[in-house]
Amino acid sequence: MTSSQTPLKNLVIVGGGFAGITLAQQLEHRLPPGWKLTLVSQENFITYNPLLPEVVGASILPGHVIAPHRQMIHCSNVCMAQVTEIDYEAKQVHYLGEGSGVLPFDQLVLACGVNANLDLVKGMSQHALPLKTLGDALFLRNRIVSRLEQAELQPVLVPRPLEAARLVRLVEDRHGRRRIRCGGAPAGGP
User: Fold this and answer.
1) Which residues, in sequence order, are bridge partners of residue 41?
2) CA angle 38, 40, 46 (to 5 degrees)
3) Which residues contact 181 (CB under 8 A, 6 or more apart)?
4) First CA to last CA across the chain, in angstroms?
5) Nearest Cα to 94, choosing from 105, 185, 143?
6) Do the Cβ atoms of 95 and 108 come closer than 8 Å?
7) What is the pLDDT of residues 50-72, one digit of tens each?
8) Which among 54, 61, 62 is positioned nearest to 174, based on CA atoms?
9) Alpha-carbon distances, residue 81 vs 17, 31, 42, 53 (angstroms)
């Protein structure tokens, strides 16, 4: 309650990506007295997606591509939950987090973003992996490491050795290291 005993008005932002967090940063100190801002997001951090390939290649640590919401906004509430329903007539956001709950709102902003859609290109969902979240990057990195270790343990005759050598050199050039070997010798010669 404010000093005049009127209930606080609630501004709820659904989505903790760049749009949601930037809006929360801009509004949290500009809201008039008697307003409360709440950011609702499935994650409690924002991911800087352009650096996710660097996490896959182990060039940077996973913690370097995320920033916690609570460090970016200071005078607002952060609710880590999944929105399950929005009741516009009752002005309520229903969510699941540590339990289910209802969040009343006077003003609502939807800044939800999108999920990776691998169905845009025919066959992509069967033959590709998404790289949209930190979890995707870690999964892809672990899968690459696992496949490289399998290849080292179980040598396979490659029908096109020149193509295999070209691919190995590509990985080697990308990281600037000579750790991957082709046929027992470093790829690309001594």
Assistant:
1) 80
2) 110
3) 168, 187
4) 74
5) 105
6) no
7) 999 999 988 899 999 999 999 99
8) 54
9) 14, 24, 5, 27
Q: How many residues does the chain have?
A: 190
For residue range 136-157, list pLDDT tens digits in order.
999 999 998 888 888 777 765 6
Residue entry with tokens 């949290």:
28
Q: Mapping DSSP to helix (H, G, I), strand (E, B) and coil, where does residue 21 land? A: helix
CATH numbers and ranges of domains, the chain: 9-110 (3.50.50.60), 130-186 (no CATH)
| Paired tokens of 145 | 């490491």
Please give the model's pTM, rounded to 2 decimal places. Answer: 0.72
pLDDT, position 187: 42
pLDDT band (50, 70, 90) for residue 114:
confident
